[in-house]
Amino acid sequence: MDEFMRITRSGGHIIFNIRAEPYPEQELKQAVDAFSETGAWKMVDQSLIFRSYYFIEPDVTSKVYVFKVL
């Protein structure tokens, strides 16, 4: 996330998807929360949880997040 923030201009967007189940315990969530808390970006949108590989791995779910860099 640090590198995405470094290369994205103010007003730009950072969009990423993650696996839904492990996300709450990942270091990535801590970084996302820290940028939100410091006002470095704000969440613009997030998807519903969806099956990433519906036929191959039906139990794998993902979620997409969109943040605007401030």
Describe what you observe in this structure.
The protein has 70 residues and is an alpha+beta fold. It has one domain (2-10, 17-61). 26% of the residues lie in helices and 43% in strands. The chain has two helices and four strands, in the order αβαβββ.
Keywords for this structure?
70 residues; alpha+beta; elongated
SSE arrangement:
Elements: H1 2-7, E1 13-19, H2 27-38, E2 41-46, E3 50-53, E4 57-69
Antiparallel strand pairs: 1-4, 2-4, 3-4
Shape: elongated
Number of discrete helical segments = 2
**Broad structural category:** alpha+beta
Low-confidence regions: none
Order of helices and strands: HEHEEE
Number of domains: 1
Report helical residue fraction: 25-40%
Report strand %: 35-45%
**Termini, distance in Å?**
15 Å
Mean pLDDT: 94
Largest sheet: 4 strands, antiparallel
Rg over alpha carbons: 13 Å
Number of strands: 4
Describe what is shown at a glance.
With 70 residues, the protein is of the alpha+beta class. It is built from two helices and four strands. It has one domain.
